[in-house]
Amino acid sequence: MQPRGIYLAERIRKELEKILNKPIKTGYLDTTFHRDDFRRRDHPLTPNQTKVPFIIEDKNVILIDDVLYTGRSVRAALDAMTMFGRPAKVELLVLIDRMYSRHIPVEGNYVGRKVNTLPSQRVLVELQEQGKKDNIWLMNEAE
Amino acid sequence: MSQLKTKHLLGIKNLSAEEIQLIFETADNFKDVLNRPIKKVPSLRDVTVANVFFENSTRTRLSFELAEKRLSADVINFSSSSSSVKKGETLLDTVNNILAMKVDMVVMRHSSPGAPHFLAKHIDANIINAGDGTHEHPTQALLDTFSIRQKTGDVAGKKVVIVGDILHSRVALSNIFALQKLGAEVMVCGPATLLPKHIAELGVKVELDIRKALEWCDVANVLRIQLERQKMRYFPSLREYSLYYGINKQLLDSLDKEIVIMHPGPINRGVEITSDVADSEHSIILDQVENGVAIRMAVLYLLAGQRE
After folding, report:
1. What is the pTM of this model?
2. Pairing relation of β-strands A110-115 and A122-126?
3. How far does A77 lie from chain B, in Å, by closest CA?
4. Which residues of chain B does A33 touch, with a Cβ-Cβ cutoff of 8 Å?
5. Do B103 and B50 form a contact (C-beta atoms < 8 A)?
6. Which of A29, A74, A117, B170 is the most exposed place for a label (fewest CB within 10 A)?
7. Strand partners, B132
8. CA torsion, points B188, B192, B194, B196, in degrees to nearest 10?
9. What are the average pLDDT values for consecutive 10-residue runs of chain B, which has 308 residues?
10. B96 touches chain A (CB under 8 A)
11. What residue of B is the nearest CA neighbor of A49?
């Protein structure tokens, strides 16, 4: 999932291909046009590229994102995925799960770390692929 | 930058280069959507758009309607020829009645310059100008410059000549603004009777000789000769216009370079442009039409998204 999930997806693909010794398809999914908060925020979100160069009909899919918070992005992603076919099965992998903050019934199948956070805080994931160091920050609003 | 500063798209004149780039980048994403098997996204599903056309149109109205439907908006169409405007209803009353049906956005074409600006002062909905008289046609200029960017990589630094009836053309004025904001050099070329008197004050070059204009430019945007104005005697005859300003294959072949040919449609084949040029590989006329839908989706998306 754009914007940061795509880097995690590429890393995980490389590792999985080493272990399983078979190619695994990856695509980039942008959920901007499928979000349910359009016209409810001050300004429209800037979309990123969607690149799914294959049909996901009858495939087992793992959605990958950096942070799972309200779950609404995942709902939008499930919606966006239907544009490319009907998957056999979808699972969710996230690096960080912000516990007790879900707005809809979505849970990760594979979770890097569960964190208990306040709504006023922000979780920021920075990755090498963005030209930064691998870092995960828990930030208070004031910072 | 992630949003437009304006609530309406009335013209290119008041847009900044950054806003135009934002529209282009958003349109890039919608072009991706339009190339998928399922060419539809749900973004505008709770938005109602009225296409209000007080003047005839094929391309623009179809293009807007398709863009709205691809974004899942509800669409109503209105054309003045079959409406109560004939019974003497004013513009403001007509539009207020449409808005009373809970319409969020109005796409309007009108024969009077400034009609959408007038409307924007008096009503609450987002207004998109789809052509106001001889004034502006902003989405056409956006799709024209977007097509130049797609064909040549960048608009900045390009030399673009606009050929034909500059005097009556809203496409010409919007194109001049858009091209200049994006850093292109602009020339207008046509018979002196069809060039506005003080056009050079906009910072454009003026040329009466089509061959010199084509030798100078990278891109030629050829405007339609408006046959309906022919009786007003701006030039002696169509044949004479075609002879002096028509773009044909011999003329292009005699240049020692290749130029990109554009036309906003509808084409008068054999008058301002011959068929072998319009259908050649140098022509991006059909790309312009294709890009029109993506550009209009981007404008609708960016304007609709601002609202609370």
Report:
1. 0.88
2. unpaired
3. 12
4. 29, 33, 41-43, 301
5. yes
6. A117
7. B110, B136
8. 70
9. 88 96 95 89 93 90 96 91 73 87 93 93 93 95 97 96 94 97 97 94 96 96 82 83 94 92 93 94 95 97 82
10. no
11. B29
